[in-house]
Write a structure and sequence with these properties.
2 domains; mainly alpha; NADH dehydrogenase (ubiquinone) activity
């Protein structure tokens, strides 16, 4: 019983020391003008808020997110088919891919994937 209490005290003191060390090491310094500006990437904070945003860039970003989510949804289907083969899983996988290919074909025909016009 006493060993458990000593272990608890040791872990508590160790965690407090680690919190104190991380607090001291993470102190932020605002010595440079770039670090204290709201746009650390180098944009001028006054003019960049008023500039127009490319809608094609936004649309391509949305397409990237859609196809990124598609991969995360498709991976369990592929793994379930490889573990135990079933025709229902295979057909649902093909229907899922067909819908995605129809969507990307529509975006390509619409011209949303073209950067330069």
């Amino acid at each position: 019983m006493i060993e458990c209490f000593l272990l608890f005290i040791f872990l508590f003191i160790l965690s407090m020391v680690l919190v104190l060390v991380s607090f001291l090491l993470s102190e932020k310094t605002f010595e440079s003008r770039e670090k204290s500006s709201p746009y650390e990437c180098g944009f001028d904070p006054i003019l960049s808020a008023r500039s127009s945003f490319s809608l094609r860039f936004f649309l391509l970003g949305v397409l990237f997110v859609v196809f990124d989510v598609e991969l995360s949804l498709l991976m369990p289907v592929v793994l379930s088919i490889s573990v135990g083969f079933s025709y229902v899983g295979l057909i649902s996988c093909f229907i899922f891919l067909l819908v995605l290919f129809l969507g990307i074909f529509h975006e390509w025909r619409e011209g949303s994937l073209n950067w330069v016009i």
